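wait is this the right file?? whatever heres the structure
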C-alpha cells in the first residue's frame, strides 16, 4: 500500500515558512508584501478561488487587494488597471484570475502584467526563463508538485518522469521543472499510448482533467504518483485523474484528491509573492 503524500500538511508548512518571512521583512526592511488579484465577471469557481487567495494572503500578513470588474468591461480598461498595478510600488504580485470573458484576449492581459510581478508564472518571459533553465517566477501548481516530491524524499535525478497533460499552466512547466531537476522526461497527450508510457514512469504526474483516467495496472510498481486532477463526478464526489484505489496498490507514494496537490497551489502563490517582493528569483 502506497504512502500518502499529505498536501495539506506540506501546504501548512509552506505557509508557516512564508509567515516567518513576512514578519522578518516587516521588522527588518519595513516591507509588507502586497498581492493584488483581479477578477472579471461572476464565474462562481473564480469567486471561490479568489476568496481563498485573499484569505491566505491576509492570514499571512500580506497587503491584499481584490479588484472585481464587471464582465462587460472593455479590454483597454482591464489593461489600464494592470498597468496601474504594475506601477504601484506597494503591489509586488498581480494575479488575473482565469478564465476571462470571451471578448478579452487573456494572452494579451497576461503579457501586460510586469514579469517581476507575475506571481502566476504565466508571462511569456517567465515561461521562457523556465525553458532556458534560468531563475524566474514559476507556475504555482507544478512548483507545488516539486515541493511535494521533495517532502516525500523522492529522488528525481536520473529517474524516468512521465507527465500526462501538456497545458501551459501545468503539464509543460511541470515537465521542464522535472527536466531541470535532472529527470529523464516524457510528456504525454491525447495521441500518446498512455498504458505504454505510464508503465515506464518512476515518477508520474497527471494533469488531464479526465476522472480516474489512469489505471493502477498501468503503473510501475514502486512509482511515485502525483495526481493534479480535480474533477467533480456526477455524484458530487471530487476525484483525481488517477484511479486512486488501484494506483495505491502499485505506487510507493501517491497524492490523494482532495488533500494532495490542491492545497499546494495557494501556498506556492504566497511563496511566489514573497519572491516577487524581495526580487529573490
Ligand atoms: P487542460 O488545459 O485542459 O489540459 C489537459 C491536458 O490533458 C491536455 O494537454 C490534453 O491533451 C491532455 N488530455 C486530455 N484528455 C486526455 C486523454 N484522454 N489522454 C491523454 N491526454 C489527455 O487542463 P489543465 O489546466 O492542465 O488541468 C488539468 C487538470 O488539473 C484538471 O483536472 C484541473 O482541474 C486540474 N488542476 C488542478 C490544479 C490544482 O490546484 N490542484 C491546478 C490546475 C489544474 P491535448 O494537449 O492533446 O489536448
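ok assuming it is, sequence goes like this
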Amino acid at each position: 500500500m502506497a504512502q500518502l503524500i499529505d498536501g495539506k500538511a506540506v501546504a501548512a508548512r509552506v505557509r508557516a515558512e512564508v509567515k516567518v518571512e513576512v514578519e522578518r521583512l516587516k521588522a527588518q526592511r519595513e516591507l509588507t508584501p502586497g498581492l493584488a488579484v483581479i477578477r472579471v465577471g461572476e464565474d462562481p469557481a473564480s469567486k471561490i478561488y479568489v476568496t481563498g487567495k485573499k484569505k491566505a494572503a491576509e492570514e499571512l500578513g500580506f497587503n491584499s487587494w481584490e479588484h472585481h470588474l464587471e464582465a462587460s468591461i472593455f479590454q483597454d480598461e482591464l489593461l489600464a488597471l494592470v498597468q496601474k498595478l504594475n506601477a504601484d510600488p506597494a503591489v509586488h504580485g498581480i494575479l488575473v484570475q482565469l478564465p476571462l470573458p470571451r471578448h478579452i484576449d487573456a494572452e494579451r492581459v497576461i503579457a501586460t502584467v510586469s514579469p517581476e510581478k507575475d506571481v502566476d508564472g504565466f508571462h511569456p518571459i517567465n515561461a521562457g526563463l523556465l525553458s532556458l533553465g534560468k531563475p524566474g517566477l514559476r507556475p504555482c501548481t507544478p512548483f507545488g508538485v516539486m515541493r511535494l516530491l521533495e517532502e516525500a524524499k523522492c529522488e528525481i535525478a536520473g529517474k524516468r518522469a512521465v507527465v500526462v497533460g501538456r497545458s501551459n499552466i501545468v503539464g509543460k512547466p511541470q515537465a521542464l521543472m522535472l527536466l531541470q531537476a535532472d529527470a529523464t522526461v516524457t510528456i504525454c497527450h491525447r495521441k500518446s499510448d498512455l498504458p505504454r508510457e505510464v508503465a515506464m514512469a518512476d515518477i508520474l504526474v497527471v494533469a488531464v482533467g479526465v476522472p480516474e483516467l489512469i489505471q493502477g495496472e498501468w503503473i510501475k510498481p514502486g512509482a511515485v504518483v502525483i495526481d493534479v486532477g480535480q474533477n467533480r463526478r456526477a455524484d458530487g464526489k471530487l476525484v483525481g485523474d488517477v484511479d486512486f484505489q488501484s494506483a495505491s496498490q502499485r505506487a510507493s507514494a501517491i497524492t490523494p484528491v482532495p488533500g494532495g496537490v490542491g492545497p499546494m497551489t495557494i501556498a506556492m502563490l504566497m511563496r511566489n509573492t514573497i519572491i516577487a517582493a524581495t526580487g529573490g528569483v
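Residues 7-29 form the longest helix (23 residues). so i think its the right one actually
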